[in-house]
Amino acid sequence: MELFDVKRYAPGQKQADPGRENRLLEKLQGIIAEKKKILEEKQEKHKEPSVEKDQPAEHEIEESEEEETVIQTPGETFKILGDEQFAEKEKVKRTLPSWLSHPVVISNDLTQKTERIDDMPFLSPEMRENLKKMGIETLFPVQKQVIPWILDAHANPPPFRPRDICVSAPTGSGKTIAFALPIIQLLMQRTTQKIRALVVLPVRELAAQVFTVFKNLSKGTNLNCLLFSPNRSFAEEQKYLVKEVNGKMHSRVDIIVTTAGRLVEHLCGTPGFCLKDLKFLVIDEADRIMEQIQNDWLYHLENHLQKDVQHFPGRNIPVSLMTLKGELAKQPHKLLFSATLSSDPEKLENMKLFLPKLFTSVATEFKYTEGNQEASKELVGKFTTPAELTEKICETEMEKKPLTLFKLITENSWRRFLCFTNNNIAANRLTFVLQKMLGDGLVVKDLSANLKKNARMAILSKFAAGKVHGLVSSDALARGIDLPNVDVVVSYDCPRHIRTYIHRIGRTARAGRPGTAVTLISQEDREMFKKILTTAGKSPLQDIKVSSESHEEKFSSVLVELNKYLKDEKKRMSVRTQKDENTMKKPALKRKKVDPEPGKLKRKKKRLPGKEIRAKKAKIN
């Protein structure tokens, strides 16, 4: 259009056509008047009831297509030019990889014991004998699913590589035997002694427990297992680990059970420690290991495994049978186990799994069909508990929590219970209060990290023998530790996360035995605990009530004794600290050597022993 043509100014143009500007101005005024007339007609039509408000006039549509400017009148909303539709964006739906959304489902009912180990053809005679010595006659569901799968995966010859697996099953369902038994059965055929299995765990107590299972299952075989433990010196572990023959270092063991930090120490400080022939890498309590940044153990392990591997630039990898058998096939079979395994693909990506496969348990029976997409979504992110476990809650006031716990113990006749607090200080104080209120009828002990290992082991052995009836602990025992015959687990302090809750209540109802879990909550904690249960896909729990019988006088007197005990304990700690400071050796001050003046130098007399002096005098005489 002429109105929007940009032309250079020519000096002679005005003289050639002096009326051009007046014509353009008149044309612009005519367009404005026409626009005003259209807007007035539009407003009048909106007022008429017979005309629909959303139906524009024909000449209005034509003008809207041709117009390049819009006149906005007061009170009218801004009009968007064009035919674009500005609709709300759809929310991005969570899409999981196929192996996470299509798992192998494991039953969480541990009471189904139909097939005996003598009727299982995939077990070797040595394994059957060792299982019977351990008192195991049948296998649990997770063991029936995982053990034959691992054995079949390693039945294929190289260069076939078995798929890595992730196993998420309830606490106490037998996950340790599920990976220990197939490893030992497959390594029994080895000819030379090399490290072929590595088991990594988050804490030393759990590592000692898993090591015991490996030792029991490897009886009657030629396999040697070693536990990296802080109870043994580093130099002593090196002697048990490697030996020197004809100037070369050789391994003394086949299977290693360790924590992450101790593994890095040996990778960096033990000459001859080699994991090049590693066949199995087991990561137990994998969700905690993934969150553990302890010397970045996985980085050091991968560097150790890939140290002498030939790397090919880009994607130009020579595809040949020798290459597949050699460099590319030297990767350990990774086995991840946990009761609260993360379903976050980003966290699992760091483990660099090879075509992973998921084994998981659900609360109800489930059969996947191709069109049943909704059911597969329910499997992801849900933490299951044993079917034999009964979960309850008890609402109480914050100030009366110890009194409520005392009533629960006495009224329900609990004789083997485990109580969890959020810290060691609360555990120590609660132990004092419970022991004073229960008297000599029951023995309650504090099991905190402040105690030395020998003291903790002594308390655990007394609990197993029935000499100690109740244990009060922080979350140090909440993960993986197998305590025998715990009837009731009490969460004295409300757990802060769903994983903490799952591992706490997993100390009871183990190996098919019934158990009860009770959580004490205040009115303020009820909403938070409800969200925690929703995260696990659980329905609201049953309430447990206590009697209205008052023990206020007894409780008040015990609190007075507690205050006196805390003051005495504070004095003892201050005296002990003062003694430690006094017994500390102060560094001796170094005296400066001052050179004497040249004129004052004295010759030192040579002192001889008494016998030599007497001998010289005898010769002279």
Describe the secondary structure blueprint for this structure.
Layout: H1 13-16, H2 20-47, H3 58-66, H4 98-101, E1 104-107, H5 125-133, H6 141-153, E2 165-168, H7 175-187, E3 197-201, H8 204-217, E4 225-227, H9 234-241, E5 242-245, E6 248-251, E7 255-259, H10 260-269, E8 280-284, H11 286-291, H12 297-305, H13 321-328, E9 333-338, H14 345-349, E10 357-362, H15 373-378, E11 389-395, H16 401-411, E12 417-420, H17 424-438, E13 444-447, H18 453-465, E14 470-473, E15 488-491, H19 498-505, E16 515-521, H20 526-535, E17 542-543, H21 552-583, H22 610-620
Parallel strand pairs: 1-10, 2-9, 2-10, 3-7, 3-8, 4-7, 8-9, 11-16, 11-17, 12-14, 12-15, 13-14, 15-16
Antiparallel strand pairs: 5-6
Helix pairs in contact: 6-7, 7-8, 10-12, 16-17, 17-21
Keywords:
13% strand, 17 strands, alpha/beta, 621 residues
Gyration radius over CA: 39 Å
End-to-end span in angstroms? 145 Å
Strand content: 5-15%
Shape descriptor reads extended
Tally of contiguous helical segments? 22
* Fraction in helix: 25-40%
DSSP, total strands: 17
Alpha-beta classification? alpha/beta
Identify the strand order in the major beta sheet. Answer: 1-10-2-9-8-3-7-4
Spans with pLDDT under 50 lasting ≥5 residues? 50-75, 363-381, 597-606
Please describe the biggest sheet, giving its number of strands, its sense, and whether it closes into a barrel: 8 strands, parallel
Global mean pLDDT: 79
